[in-house]
Every structure is written in structure tokens, then in C-alpha cells.
Amino acid sequence: MSEAVTASAVAEYLQQHPDFFQHHPHLLDELQVTHSEKGILSLVEAKLQRQRDQLRRQQLELDKIHKMAEHNERMFFSLLPLQQQFTQAKQFSDGLNVLQEWTTALGLQKGTVLLFRDSWLESAEIPAAHWLDRTAFEIIRLERFGLQRHYLGILTHREKTLMFLPQDFPLGSVAFCLLGKRKSRHPYTAVLVFAAKDERHFHRNQETSFLHQLAEMVEQHLDHWLIEKL
User: Fold this and answer.
1) Which Gene3D superfamilies match (predicted)?
2) 3-class SS of residue 192
3) How many domains are contained in the chain?
4) Residue 138 and residue 84 share a domain
5) Do 52 and 107 share a domain, yes or no?
């Protein structure tokens, strides 16, 4: 206990007297600090090494931010031709093909839209695999979405079988975004779905502004391709 108190007292004294080592420069070389990679260092070497480590971490963080900015810029610019192709799509199935081609070009496994049966009028041109039961989906929404309109991460096998076809397996991580307008009978009428083979591709800490902008674009075109139940 006394050693802890003494250590605290020493630390406090040095904080209150930052010029201490100017008056006792010989201690800079005599005091030793153990470094995880470089072994025992003098106090001066330890300070320099700490500064180098901080600079390296800062540079890595700047590189990460720079790469993220470049990635986001490429992604946002990719929305321009996608919007044009959506506009040219005559029906829902055409829009799905456009979305899947765009998704594949980005290196993702799957990109699609699932519709809730109680929100849209059924049509022969809507593939059966694109209908989704709201009650069944609520289990996933409550477990994964919380109060958000999106979820990025992994799913259990049971959740995957509800949202994906057998030919989609194996798959790693997913990105879901609820679609729907205020005037709709339900708070959400469809789900925008993306899947990647890598479990680490989509995760909770990702920035989602791009996903929501894409979701707004898809929402606008659903009204042109489908008839919503009133």
C-alpha cells in the first residue's frame, strides 16, 4: 500500500514540477522504461519512442480516413448511373436486375428487394421469392434492428433461411434497410437487402448515410413498378 502511495506522490510531484528533469538531467539516462518491442529504454528514448508510436497511430488513422473518403466518393458517384438505369426500368423485375448488376460490380454477393405481402398488390411479374411475411420478419427486426431502420452484420442460420434462397448460401455478412413512406399503411413496406461472402464486410460500426441514400432512391422507384395496397 505504501509503495502505491509513494508512486502516486511521485507522479503528482512530477506533474506539479514539469521542469524537474531540467534540474536533474543525469536522471534521464539512469531511469529505465520497459518497452514491449524494444526492451529497456532510457526515459529520453522512451519519450521519443512514445512520440513515434503516437505519430504512427495518427498516420494510420489519417490513412484510414483518406481511404474511407475515397471509397465513399466512388460509391456516391456510382449512384448516378444507377439512378438512370432505375429510371429506364419498366417493371420491378427489371429494377431487380439493375440492382443485382450494380451489386455484383461492387464485389458483393447479392443485392435485392423483398416485399411485404400485406403492403403490395400481387402481380405475375413479381417473383415468388421476393415476397416476405411481416410476422416472420418481425423476429429479425426486433432482434437486430432495435430502433434503427438498418442492420449491418451477421445472421444466424435460421435468419438467413428466412431472408435468402438456398442458392444464395454460403453467405457471410448482410446489410438490411427498411423501405417505406409516411403515407403508407405500414411503417415499412419492403426491405433492401445486400449480402457479402465475407463476414467482416458489413458490421455495426459502418457509416450508413450511403445505404440510406440508396434506400431513398429505391423507394421512389417502387411506386413506379408496383401498386401499393391502401
Assistant:
1) 3.30.450.40
2) strand
3) 2
4) no
5) no
In a domain, 21, yes or no: yes
Kindly give, in sequence order, each residue whose CB lies less than 8 Å from that of residue 49, ignoring residues fewer than 6 positions away.
35, 38, 41
Q: Which residue has the cell 431472408?
A: 163
- Based on the fold, state whether residues 84 and 117 are members of the same structural domain: no
Residue 124 lies in a domain: yes
Measured CA to CA, the distance from residue 5 to residue 210 in angstroms comes to 53
Q: How crowded is residue 173: how many other Cβ atoms within 10 Å of its Cβ?
A: 19
Prediction pTM value:
0.68
CA 174, CA 103: separation in Å to the nearest integer? Answer: 13
**Alpha helix (H) residue ranges in 18-141:** 20-23, 26-30, 43-88, 92-105, 134-140
Tens digits of pLDDT across the chain (230 residues): 445 557 788 778 777 877 776 677 776 666 666 666 665 555 566 566 667 777 777 777 765 655 555 555 566 667 888 899 999 999 999 999 999 999 999 899 999 999 999 999 988 889 889 999 999 999 999 999 988 999 999 999 999 999 999 999 999 999 999 998 766 678 899 999 999 999 999 999 888 888 988 999 999 999 899 988 87
Residue range of the domain that includes 150: 90-226
